[in-house]
Design a protein that fits this description.
Elements lengths: L1 E5 L10 E5 L8 E11 L1 H8 L14 E8 L11 E4 L10 E5 L4 E2 L6 H21 L7 E4 L5 H12 L3 E6 L2 H10 L3 E4 L5 H8 L5 E6 L3 H10 E9 L13 H5 L4 E3 L10 H16 L7 E6 L3 H9 L6 E5 L1
Helix pairs in contact: 2-3, 2-8, 5-6
Length: about 325
């Protein structure tokens, strides 16, 4: 019997329910995976709350590490006992075990433990596509990273430094500032006591930055607009501080002919080749120490609601994982 989280309606963390499910044998092209660690990601809260509409009832979570228990017909790339990871797009990772398509799995390197994998896979590949495929950051460029102490932000800082960029990091506390500097940030802005755009202009001698990586949304939208250099790019990839809506594109002209994109991971990880290339790049960055995991908190799997409350309240830093 598998223990599985599900929601029947959208709302606060209290809508997360648990039930016992008897799994059938894996079907054609499927793998039966037992989870050993599950990643918590901010997108999980969007699915739960309805910010990102999903069909209901639904499972939650897309990222996990674990072991293959059995394989279905036609599966040749995996065998029972293989250590594997997944970051979606199928939801349902908040579970002790489940069946899922084999093409959403990949083998984990021996040097990568399960908890680190669950903390890094989705966030690491998100950092990869944001920096290298979407913004195409070049060595020597200066990049503003909002929420730089968060799960994705922490990885972004290390990734950007590894490719030769200068990093301006925006964080909310002295403690987070210290951790972000340790991760490699060149400049840190305490957004609760400093005006972000003014500090960015000061740091860049009035020019602004060519790239802004904004995982916060509405709360930092104006600061992003005012921090971007002429013909700069704002990559708005998250809504932790509210959804950016009602955008008047004329403001992009007034602020210096800016570019804005609202990307999602799976538009950049469409084909098997794109997925494998991104994962390989992440593993390489882990191997050479360019990015390092930071597991800030762990919760028992069935305390997922408490974990959601903590991440939404800004009480977490680095990555948070759920343990079955």
């Amino acid at each position: 019997m598998a223990r599985v989280a599900f929601i029947e309606k959208t709302g606060g963390p209290e809508v997360i329910q648990w039930r016992d499910v008897e799994l059938p044998p894996p079907g054609k092209g499927e793998v039966w995976m037992r989870n050993t660690a599950v990643g918590l990601n901010y997108i999980d809260t969007y699915h739960r709350s309805g910010v990102y509409p999903i069909d209901l009832p639904s499972g939650l979570g897309s990222e996990a590490a674990g072991v293959v228990m059995a394989v279905g017909e036609g599966v040749t790339d995996f065998a029972p006992g293989d250590r594997v990871g997944t970051f979606g797009p199928s939801r349902g990772a908040y579970a002790t075990e489940r069946n899922l398509p084999a093409n959403q799995l990949f083998k984990l390197p021996d040097a990568l433990d399960d908890q680190t994998a669950a903390a890094m896979l989705l966030k690491g590949c998100t950092a990869e596509f944001l920096v290298e495929r979407c913004a195409k950051v070049q060595a020597g460029q200066t990049v503003l990273v909002h929420a730089a102490a968060g799960g994705v932000g922490h990885i972004l800082v290390g990734w950007l430094k590894a490719i030769g960029a200068t990093v301006i990091a925006s964080v909310g506390s002295e403690d987070k500032a210290a951790r972000t500097q340790k991760a490699g940030a060149d400049h840190v802005i305490l957004h609760k006591s400093e005006e972000i755009a003014a500090r960015v202009r000061e740091i860049t001698d009035g020019k602004g930055v060519p790239v802004v990586l904004d995982g916060v949304g509405r709360a930092t939208w104006d600061a992003s607009l005012d921090s971007a250099a002429k013909r700069g790019l704002i990559v708005s990839y998250g809504n932790a501080g509210g959804v950016v809506d009602g955008v008047n594109i004329g403001v992009l002209a007034r602020k210096g002919s800016l570019f804005v994109t609202r990307p999602t991971l799976f538009d950049y990880y469409v084909t098997s080749e794109e997925r494998q290339a991104g994962i390989a790049r992440l593993f390489a960055m882990l191997d050479n120490g360019a990015v390092t995991p930071e597991i800030g908190r762990t919760f028992p799997l069935e305390e997922a609601a408490a974990a959601h409350r903590a991440i939404e309240a800004g009480e977490t830093s680095g990555s948070t994982i759920l343990l079955p």
